[in-house]
Amino acid sequence: MHNHPSFEIIDGDPGLGLVILADHATNFLPERYGRLGLPESAFERHIAYDIGVEGVVRGLNARLNAPVVMSRFSRLLIDPNRGEDDPTLVMRISDGAIIPGNHPITSEEWQYRLDTYHRPYHDAVSRTIAAVAEKTGKAPLVMSMHSFTPAWKGAARPWQVTVLWDSDYRAVGPLLCELEALGDVIVGDNEPYDGALRGDTMFRHCMKPGIAHALIEIRQDEIGDNAGIVRWVDRLAPIFSRLNADPALHTYEIHTSRTGPY
């Protein structure tokens, strides 16, 4: 296990060929930022992190022994699932909450957060993917874990689990089939948002190099307690194993992004 102010790598067997990511695993803020001028309650909300995901990825690591990379800072500080030139990289307003510590923000502070948090996290992701590729001599399979709110602007979201993707369907197709086959779960495809986001983690680490991948979103209330986390680890671990055993998901194949040319 490697702890750093901006990321944690939970060791696993690189020879498996599987990498698990969690961009928004924690709601931590370094002391120098206080609470960014927000009430404490903001840090229990989805605006600060993906509720339940840390437990899921730790559980998957324990079951599968696949390496995990997760962030160690709140997305309110800087969002690791945004490209460096994305205007929403440091949010001024999130789900109606104005973030005083981010508005106004100097270009020096913006750069500091990139250098101290965003880039080291992405470097850790790159290193982990490269280590797996080196060990297996093949493209890794990358699974990224997120969670979403049960309702948005008053409308309930019916899906319990969803898969987000851009245009590389190699891992997505079999993953959707496996999730549908669970039988008792409402599955969404590119819900509640579209998976094509220029410069995001999947774009950067998987789409551009041609690595098979999928981003899984679980509804927060499904993994809001330990029983829910265990239930989803029980569901996902065998699915990840079966997908990872497919040689077709361990080749490099560039797919044109729906966001435009690379």
TrEMBL record:
Entries under Pfam families matching the protein: FGase
Domain of life of the organism encoding this protein: Bacteria
InterPro entries: N-FG_amidohydro, UCP029730
SUPFAM superfamilies: Zn-dependent exopeptidases
Name used for this protein in its record: N-formylglutamate amidohydrolase
